[in-house]
Amino acid sequence: MTDAQSTTVELPDFDVLADLLVEEGALTLSPSELHGLLAGQVAAGARFDPAGLLQRIQELFDIEPFGSDVTRRTVMQTYMAILQQFQAPDFSFELLLPDEDQPLSIRAEALGVWCSGFLSGFGMQERKGPGGLSVEGQETLRDLAQIVQISTDADAEGEEDEANLMEVQEYVRMAALLIFSECNEPDAREEDQTGSTPPTLH
């Protein structure tokens, strides 16, 4: 494994990515939706080079090409972190959601947006191989479709509300890992890790 491949790629900060998208004029695109969509595509077997990734995002969200090198690098960092976390043996995959100091209603809405993005990304990616998802995998997708509608009262801030949201969030995280494991053969995952060098972030 090369140094580039052994280096851990961290997810960008939610607020940093949100500010960059606003500066680019992508006012309707939230970091959660972008992360969910890329995660859905990767879970379904998609892999991107930098140019292909940026073009894909531009087409899917009907936005102008990113003008800032910082934005382009941050988006690529998001994709690389997703791929690396999915492949990690310690199930370290994370969802890109607002910080925990944000109101519960904002975070719940973002979780629903993430699920919507994931389902969209998964659905638009042509999956390789003859087999479909297992019964468990299909049920998992249906569960995510239900979670898209998640909401909480604006004044819901109690410990029980917090615990419930954390439980749903953890379910979504593990659901994404399950879908990835079903759609990405172990041999293919090994190939990703050892057979090709990921793009370098500058």
TrEMBL record:
Protein family: Belongs to the UPF0149 family.
Name the UniProt record assigns to this protein: UPF0149 family protein
